[in-house]
Amino acid sequence: MKYIILFALVVAFIGNTLASEELVIGENIITVRAHLDDSLQNFNIYVSMPQNYFVGLGFGSSMKDANIVVIDATEESFNGVPVIHDAHSSEHGKPVDNEESVFKLLDSTSDGDLLTVALQRPVVVQRDGRDETIPFDEEIKMIYAFKEGKYGYHGKDSRGFFTLNVSSETGDVTFNSNPVGTKYNKIKEAMK
Fold it and tell me: Distance between CA atoms of 28 and 148, rounded to whole angstroms?
């Protein structure tokens, strides 16, 4: 069975303007929206996903030396509120949770089989000898992974790569879903 997923990165311009793009990967729907808060000091992430899945988003071009947040709503951990893993991966394999999480769970709501999660992290983060600050006005390499069932190996068809850019002037976030020619990814304008 093919796992197909829909990632939508919808980023709010500080104020009332909404810039939207969708990263389309397949038939199971997972949406991700992100924006800076009004202070430009915090990065908010909103994820809608099926329950009994885990979804990971990582800063880096591969799992080697990547800072990763994993939303774990699998049966093993889900009791109405997902487990948020603020992790680091030094090699390929399951990321190791950091001792202290910089992610704050703002909200988690369940509607049938769909879970919507709101997270926040500071833009500037330095810990364990690593600078995890989200830079402005430059290409940020990102990875993602997802899978139904137990949090662990995602499989080769349940992962991907995209780039992200945060504007210092507007706070808008844009991304390129297909920087390396992955045939499953496609950007299109999101419906408002």
Answer: 10
